[in-house]
Amino acid sequence: MFPFAKERDYFPILQEQVMLSSCSQSALSRQVEEAIHSYVDTLRYTGMDWMRWMAEVEEAKTQFAKLINAEPEEIAVLSCVSECASSIASAFDFAGKRNQIVTTEMDFPSVGHVWLAQEKKGAQVKFIPSQESVIPLAYYDQFVNEQTLITSIPHVSYYNGFKQDLTKIAEIVHQKGSYLFVDAYQSAGSVAIDVKAMDVDFLATGMQKYMLGIPGIAFLYVKKEVAEKLEPAVTGWFGRTNPFAFDIRCLDYAAGARRFETGTPPMINGYAANAALRLLHEVGVERIEAYLSDLSETAVMYAGERGLTVVSPVEKSQKASNTAIYIPQASKAEALLKERNVIVSARNDVIRIAPHYYNTKAEVKTAIDALAEVAAHLQEA
Ligand SMILES: Cc1ncc(COP(=O)(O)O)c(C=O)c1O
């Protein structure tokens, strides 16, 4: 039985296309579309409505906080995950003995670039390698040491859906005295997150992927006790105690995570985020995660049956929604599938099949059948 028939109707594109690209862009719901229009209406009919715009952004913060079991005061609104990482990096000094940033080869490149840019400030960047589609937990114990200031990891890999155990990693890195930064862009909305139970220090995500929204807005969680110790150099008027004081000589820092905010927040994106977050709360991420775990198993097995090579982890507990299938000409395969109304996402040498709660098992199989045909065609050509 398909459990989300009512919710599936929210997404009109699903009547025309097989959309399995949640690792890149999820389907547009009527609710998000209406929210975007309602921002445009404020411009068209009221001209200017700062109070309402700011209220929408605050509401999005509160809804996101609830999603990850944080306080709204522990959330900053920024524009993208790369900016979240830059903002955190700018608050650290790498001149001392503890000057290492440990990150992983499975992080999204943009996040790695932010850490590499800190070498100019004296940071030493180390990359933990992956081994057979995963990062063994023991590597954290080996690579993180008494010189590590920040450890940066993806919760779920953008490439192959490898899912990490945040609680265990947090325990290891904290024992060594390092902070833990988590990029949750490939997990939020599809994998349950409890920042308190998992004990992460920083967590960043945007709305475009499994969060059912659009790009242009990102949320940065900063643990309360940690935020108060940091003063980011990436800043702006929304990071001040009172943004409306307009005192150019006063660089004070707002309490909590708001000190990490910069300029005017992404307002239209805030409207869209609210509508999307309401959809996620309506069913709860735990139910979505359980359903996607089933779809993921189907995808791995069926791709194998169709003779395709899966490069995602096989162990269920180590894998999220995304099933990565090896195809040397992945971008070409993505374009050919699009011609058949099958929307999937290519990265390097893989096609990523990334369902959300609105997808059915039949759709996953349809996409894999089409991919098998396209792969054979590309091999012959
Ligand atoms: C895991 C992960 N982190 C970060 C990014 C990039 O995020 P942004 O463009 O918001 O900086 C992506 C984009 O695909 C991603 O998958």
Calculate the terminal CA-CA distance, rounded to whole Å.
40 Å
Percent of residues in beta strands: 5-15%
Q: Largest beta sheet, briefly?
A: 7 strands, mixed
Could you tell me the mean pLDDT? 97
Query: What is the helix fraction of residues, given as a range?
Result: 25-40%
Q: What does the overall shape look like?
A: globular
CATH class of the largest domain: Alpha Beta
| Arrangement of strands in the largest sheet | 2-8-7-6-5-3-4
Number of domains: 2
Q: What's the CATH architecture of the largest domain?
A: 3-Layer(aba) Sandwich
CATH superfamily of the largest domain: Type I PLP-dependent aspartate aminotransferase-like (Major domain)
Backbone CA Rg: 21 Å
CATH topology of the largest domain: Aspartate Aminotransferase, domain 2
Q: Identify every distinct bound molecule in the structure, by name, code or SMILES.
A: pyridoxal-5'-phosphate
GO molecular function: transaminase activity
Organism: Brevibacillus panacihumi W25
InterPro entries: Aminotrans_V_dom, PyrdxlP-dep_Trfase, PyrdxlP-dep_Trfase_major, PyrdxlP-dep_Trfase_small
Protein name: Aminotransferase
